[in-house]
Design goal:
13 helices; binds ligand MIG; Immunoglobulin-like; alpha+beta; 8-stranded antiparallel β-sheet
């Protein structure tokens, strides 16, 4: 209690601990098999190989043999490239592809060069450890260059100069710059310079810390256990590093189209009547809607895979009825299983030994919503299958999407989570919770997504998760947890979403309107404007807060909120096409400016503007009472989406944006496919092509398929490429067999002769 007052900083409380680190040096022996270099050091062992021309794996285990198995996250670690090895008194020289790796034998300092240029360099000592078996890996960094990544973190986009740790944590307290441990762990950073980008993926699931603060020219990564296990990606720019990183950890699969529509949620809509009422209002006000969420109150005593039949007596009919109106229902599913022998999920889980246990074999119990609960050991593939199959309860009702919460896992106790000495059984490999904690959410997402895939047959599932680890994008969309209805949190959501995207997680969003604390009409409008261009778009708020559905603040606010929900649907063809691109390339939907303009230092720290895909720039108002803001438009020509005014890039502009206006700019040369007004994504849209004139030619894409099935894997898609040159003739090339393509109803060239 007192710790939250000035008592926390009493002089007598300062306790400067001197930490002793031991360096790992000298290559004592080595073995080269033509692809993999292994060897012994002053303490422990090391291993180096390349999985492709631009990705090197370096493992150092100061305590014994290196573990070379690829983790669940690093699923793309399958190849080993061949090379040659040379040696002199001082160093080992590995030539692999175009890379020269130089390992100084005495210090174990390592660098990678290409055509004489240093691409990567460790510091000395490169590796160290301490008496608690923490391991340290130090590399050189440029004091002035930005560092991105680390997934879901608070603060601005550039992390250089800060110290950031990773331990999946449920944080209800207001998130701020110091709240670095949130729900996700993605131990990956991208160090960017105008001439090159380097990705460092530290694939160690223990609690980790990235220290980019203590020394201006050094990045030290610490893990509280395990080994130094890094993948170093040598890219020429940001895009290439993300491509390499998502080749390793996986890409975001194309989601069902309905999951890209507008979703309405609240903790909680507590009865079937309330759910119906919400949907009726959307209809009455003619606001597009794709999905309503059911938070924990739908359940019988917070038992997952049940309904409260007092509050939802006709839940089966309810879901069917909404399905007929093309509205999906997504229920929440938490991992905690109520300790109650009359509850079949608990009974079965106990009988089969599927809950997480201590070494003694005793089940771990922790308190969450349902009271004392047990926690499935998702690390085990039998448990994953069992869990997946349990979802038949939902899919039989017609449900096609699941929301996973509390999967850090969050427990109501002092440590906020499971005991660290619980042992998870990853198919025979036993790991402590201390090591596996950050993976719990990832494995739950895997179980959920793969279970739904089986149950839905040929349908694409939607899964949304709060906790995760690197690679989570393969299974789930991510929302950024319990933000608040604070302007600062609206502002922070931009760099947070951009850094998630730079860390491979493309399908993301923050609770629109803010989750806890009370929103205001103005904040709701501005937040809906931003939400409309986020990969995932859901309005959600906490139980005792003011209601924040689009109509909650009267007709004027409603009109503005509705305008932006409608705009989301107008941009749906562009967005869906982008998701298709993401599945292929791994590149995010929402991008920082630096991704498209890597040579322009003006973009390096831009936290308050986003690019949606490569051509659309959104510069929202993020402060109350403001109707003007400065907007940086990178090189080239840009058009204001609303006024169609032309702007020269490479400089700042003062833009006027009253409460009803979100500044949106389209790059000259873009062919933008927009869709006609619809009630939701299940209705077919007509297409309008807006062609933003450029003397250098114009181009755009439109990806279409049935929006739901996997038939597109078998060619049932249509990818149209539109091109226009000086003759102003529109040429269309089409790939794929999908025939029910939308009709193009209108083509307009913007900016001609202006
Ligand atoms: O706060 O299920 O982040 O979205 O509404 C406790 C209730 C648990 C946290 C989630 C929030 C959700 C809430 N949950």
């Amino acid at each position: 209690m007192l710790e939250t007052t000035s008592y926390a900083i009493l002089p007598s409380k300062v306790n400067r601990k001197v930490e002793v680190r031991h360096a790992v040096t000298s290559v004592n022996s080595y073995k080269w098999d033509g692809k993999v270099l292994t060897g012994t050091l002053s303490k422990g062992t090391f291993c180096i190989y390349f999985i492709n021309d631009k990705t090197m794996r370096l493992i150092v285990n100061p305590f014994g043999e290196v573990d070379t198995a690829a983790s669940i996250a690093a699923a793309g670690d399958t190849e080993r490239m061949s090379g040659t090895l040379e040696e002199n008194d001082r160093s080992l020289y590995l030539q692999i592809g175009e890379n020269e790796v130089i390992i100084e034998k005495e210090s174990f300092r390592l660098s990678v060069k290409k055509e004489g240029e240093v691409l990567f360099q460790t510091d000395t000592p490169a590796v160290a450890y301490n008496s608690e078996k923490h391991v340290y890996f130090s590399i050189k960094k440029n004091p002035d260059s930005p560092i991105y990544g680390l997934g879901e973190k608070s603060g601005f986009i550039n992390k250089n100069g800060s110290k950031i740790s990773n331990w999946n944590t449920d944080v209800y307290a207001p998130h701020n710059k110091d709240t670095v441990e949130l729900y996700q762990t993605i131990p990956f950073v991208l160090m960017h310079e105008t001439t090159k980008s380097t990705g460092i993926y530290f694939d160690n699931t223990f609690r980790t810390e990235f220290d980019m603060q203590s020394k201006t020219d050094q990045l030290t990564i610490m893990a509280e256990g395990g080994q130094v296990n890094t993948y170093i990606m040598l890219g020429q720019d940001v895009k290439e590093v993300i491509t390499l990183y998502t080749r390793l950890t996986g890409k975001t699969p194309l989601p069902p189209k309905w999951s890209l529509g507008y979703h309405q949620s609240r903790y909680s809509y507590t009865s079937q009547d309330e759910v119906k009422d919400i949907v009726t209002r959307f209809k009455d006000f003619e606001i597009p809607l794709d999905c309503v969420f059911l938070d924990i109150h739908y359940m019988d005593g917070f038992r997952v895979f049940t309904f409260d039949e007092d509050k939802f007596p006709q839940y089966k009919e309810l879901i069917k009825e909404l399905a007929r109106e093309n509205i999906d229902v997504v229920p929440i599913v938490d991992p905690g299983i109520k300790k109650d022998v009359d509850y079949p999920v608990y009974y079965e889980g106990m009988k089969k030994g599927y809950f997480s246990k201590y070494l003694s074999g005793e089940v771990y119990y922790g308190e969450v919503w349902p009271g004392i609960s047990a926690f499935p050991d998702f690390f085990n593939s039998q448990v994953q299958e069992w869990w997946g199959e349990l979802h038949r309860f939902y899919t039989d009702l017609g449900i096609r999407g699941i929301w996973n919460d509390m999967n850090e896992p969050s427990v109501f106790n002092e440590s906020k989570t499971m005991d660290l000495d619980v042992i998870h059984n990853a198919d025979g490999k036993e790991i402590t919770h201390r090591e596996g904690h950050n993976l719990y959410g990832l494995y739950m997402s895997k179980a959920t997504f793969e279970g739904l895939q089986k149950l839905l047959g040929n349908g694409r599932p939607f899964s949304l998760t709060r906790a995760g680890y690197a690679g989570v994008q393969r299974y789930s969309a991510v929302w950024t947890g319990d933000n608040r209805s604070h302007w600062e949190h609206l502002e922070m959501s931009l760099p947070m979403i951009m850094n998630l995207g730079l860390s491979g997680v493309a399908f993301t969003g923050a609770d629109v309107g803010g989750f806890s604390s009370d929103t205001t009409p103005e904040l709701l409008i501005r937040w809906t404007q931003v939400g409309a261009f986020m990969p995932y778009f859901r309005n959600h708020s906490v139980q005792d807060s003011i209601y924040q559905e689009p109509w909650a603040f009267g007709m004027e606010t409603l009109a503005s909120v509705k305008k932006y929900i409608e705009l989301r649907y107008r941009f749906m063809p562009y967005l869906y096409s982008l998701f298709h691109e993401t599945e292929k390339t791994g590149l995010p939907i929402v991008r920082p400016l630096v991704m498209e303009y890597p040579n322009d230092p003006e973009t390096f720290q831009c936290s308050d503007q986003i690019l949606v895909g490569g051509q659309l720039l959104v510069a929202p108002i993020l402060r109350p009472g403001q109707s003007h803001r400065s907007v940086y438009l990178p090189e080239g020509t840009w058009y204001d989406f609303w006024t169609r005014e032309k702007y020269e890039g490479g400089k700042y502009h003062l833009i006027v944006a009253d409460l009803d206006t979100l500044p949106i700019f389209i790059k000259a040369g873009t062919i933008l496919p927009l869709g006609s007004a619809v009630k939701n994504t299940k209705e077919k849209q007509d297409i309008e092509l807006q062609i933003y004139h450029s003397e250098n030619g114009m181009m755009g894409y439109l990806y279409e398929d049935d929006g739901y099935s996997y038939d597109y894997h078998d060619g049932e898609f249509s990818l149209s490429t539109f091109k226009m040159g000086e003759d102003l003739e529109l040429r269309t090339e089409r790939e794929g067999f999908y025939t029910e393509v939308a009709s193009i109803k209108n083509i307009e060239i913007i900016g001609l002769n202006k």
